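Regression test case RT-17, inverse folding.

Input:
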């Protein structure tokens, strides 16, 4: 099953799907304000900072604990690990991908991202609403570990023997600028693969064939161990989603660069 779903496919699911709006903006305004201004009917708001991440340190967006995710599953009304869940946002699926990845890590098996997000829904002539659904009565307990994650040592090992993709912008990878973290640069041996190239101008993901061609050009093969990281573990999930759409499994270094640089003994590379 593709990790993506189209507007037409979402319509066909009818009322049996759980919808989650995960709109989030790194520099503001808050995603909740955008949700309150208009969202897909029936969609719940899921907050990336408090429901899809734990408190910062080390790393800006570490994994949340299972208790937090269980509460979210219950609020969304998820009653089975295979309950159909569709997540979306208003920003090229960057934060929706973090929900897709986190929900799967904690045991859900039928999570997809609305390709094109909120803009695709509106472009298809569908309406938005400001009505907020009542909290659900979910029964699923979140259990961690259903997809692979890496720590710093694991990421370094993949950089040495496989392909470690850095999902950040080229200038951050090169160490020319660093707006978020105290040290600029990248993990030695990593390969730059900015997430912006995963999508078209409309915010839709490129076709599986196009994505596979992209990652193959970066050195990924069917026999390669692949892992991804970014600044804090958000856009890394977007890269993992693009890889999965292309039929390539990967692990995510959740702590990412924001955790890597908390240890001054870890090496830092700069340049392209």
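Golden output:
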């Amino acid at each position: 099953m593709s990790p993506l779903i189209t507007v037409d496919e979402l319509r066909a699911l009818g009322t049996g799907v759980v919808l989650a709006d995960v709109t989030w903006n790194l520099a503001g305004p808050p995603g909740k304000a955008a949700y309150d201004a208009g969202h897909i009917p029936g969609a719940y708001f899921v907050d990336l900072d408090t429901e899809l991440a734990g408190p910062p340190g080390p790393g800006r967006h570490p994994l949340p604990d299972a208790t937090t995710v269980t509460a979210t599953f219950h609020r969304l009304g998820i009653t089975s690990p295979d309950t159909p869940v569709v997540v979306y946002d208003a920003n090229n699926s960057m934060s929706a991908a973090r929900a897709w990845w986190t929900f799967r890590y904690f045991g859900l098996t039928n999570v997809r991202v609305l390709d094109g997000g909120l803009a695709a829904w509106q472009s298809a002539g569908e309406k938005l609403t400001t009505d907020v659904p009542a909290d659900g009565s979910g029964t699923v307990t979140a259990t961690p570990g259903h997809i692979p994650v890496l720590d710093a040592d694991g990421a370094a090992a993949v950089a040495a023997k496989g392909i470690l993709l850095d999902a950040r912008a080229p200038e951050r990878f090169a160490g020319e600028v660093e707006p978020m973290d105290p040290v600029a640069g990248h993990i030695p041996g990593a390969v730059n693969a900015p997430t912006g190239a995963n999508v078209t101008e409309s915010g839709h993901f490129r076709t599986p064939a196009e994505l596979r061609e992209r990652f193959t050009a970066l050195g990924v093969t069917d026999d390669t161990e692949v892992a991804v990281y970014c600044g804090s573990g958000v856009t890394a999930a977007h890269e993992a989603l693009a890889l999965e759409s292309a039929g390539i499994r990967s692990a995510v270094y959740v702590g990412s660069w924001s955790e890597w640089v908390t240890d001054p003994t870890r090496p830092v590379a700069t340049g392209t």
